[in-house]
Amino acid sequence: MRGPGGGGRSASAPDEIQPVGAHRFEAFGRVMAALGGEAELMESCRDLTWWRGADDSWHIEWREGPYAAEVAETLAERVREPGSPADPVGRATPLSAELDVVGVRFVLRAVDPLGRDRPHSRLGPWRLAEVLDTTRRGPSPRPWEQLLGG
Question: What is the count of structural domains for the chain?
Fold first, then answer.
C-alpha cells in the first residue's frame, strides 16, 4: 500500500538491513540458542533478564544459579564454530564476565550466584520439577503433605 506521498518507502529508508544491527541480533540468537541447550543451567537460574546496551552490546543477568565465569566458559564452548569466534574479554569473576561473540560484546552478570555444583546439593523453591515429582517418596513428609494434614 502506498502512502499519501505516492511512494511506498520513505526517501531515508535503506534498501537493505543495516549490517551492524543484523550482526548484533545474530550474535544474540547464537547465545540464546546456546543457553537454551543447557537445561540444567537454565533451571538453576532465577530471574533471567537481558537487554541491549548503549554501545551495541548485550547484557544478560540472572539471580542465583551458576557463576558468571562458568556461564562464559559454557557459552564460549557452545557458540564457537569455525570462522565464528567466541572469546572471553578481560578477567571473568564469579559475579561478572564479558564475552565477545562474532564481534558483539556480551556482559554477563550473576546476582547472588551459588555456583554450578551447589544447586544440585540443595533443594530450592525454584526446583519445581523435584518438588512435584510424586514417584520418589522420601522418609519424611513433604511440606505440602504437612499442610494438608498427611
Answer: 1
Question: Rounded CA gap, 71 and 85, in Å?
Answer: 16
Residue 16 corresponds to which amino acid?
A: E
Q: Are strands 96-101 and 46-52 parallel, antiparallel or unpaired?
A: unpaired
pTM for the model: 0.64
Cell of 57: 552490546
Domain holding 60: CATH number?
3.30.460
The C-alpha cell that represents 54 in the structure block: 548503549
Distance of CA 109 to the CA centre of its chain: 10
Q: How far apart are CA 108 and CA 59, in angstroms?
A: 6
- How many angstroms separate the CA atoms of 19 and 126, rounded? 40
pLDDT tens, 54-102?
888 999 999 888 999 999 998 888 887 766 667 778 888 999 999 998 8
